[in-house]
Amino acid sequence: MNSLASDIDHFISDDQFFLNQAGHHDRRLPKNGARTYQKRPQLSIANCDFVTDCRPVTRRYFTLRDWLCQVSNSRLDGQLKRFSDRLVAAVGLDEQEAAKVATSVAAEVRFLEPVARGQILAVSPVPLRDRLDELRAFQEWMELASKITGSAAVTRAQVITQNYVCFVYLGEACFRALRKASKPGSVTRRCCTYLTSNPVRAFRNSIAHSNWTYAPGFDALMFGARKGSDPNEALLRFDVATAELNFWQALSRGVAYAAYCSIEALEGRPQPVEP
Question: Of 106, 167, 175, 228, which cross-links 258 as Cys (Cβ 3.0–4.6 Å)?
């Protein structure tokens, strides 16, 4: 388990900037930001607190999404740049594009026609704001879990959670619609095509259908997939090494955050809410 655990910790360590969105701490952005977080009602079950409403209280109209989009894209670019070789070889980006994946996705989504952005929203029965709330809660869980070392149970929970969110949840909620709406040849189209095609697609299906387990030594995941579409075809075994899986997960999260924040910045700004 040590290899998977250390790689998860290494990747999550740079993601603390997302955690100001959790909503159950009293936090403020810089002076020109002024979005205040106040404690929200919670339910207590077996000594565990569940935040029932983690939306921030807005006092002035510099919103969290404006600040997040400005700051996080460059940070995501830096995280994804670690995988520049894979972005070039597997996704088909050039070196300049590989250095600014999140920034490019955010800009490309921002400049989509309103009809195209509307199509991305229309395919989901869940409001975009709720999608972002789930991603932010997921991010905080990963941060909390990464502080617990030496626990195989926690590491396994991290692996399950991250694989579901990155490949099943976001595959259905984001990448398919984004691939269709984005312009041919764009960074967004190439990234979403990669994330919805084999081998990522086959791995996504194995997560959704519970056809996966750990390889001996815990340095990879083994999963079963069919070469064709015949449901009676026997499953073949495939392995995905930790380094490759980290790349898939990083690309998934980076594209989703950049795209969702960009759309939210343009679509239906909520009115300020008084405490």
Answer: 106
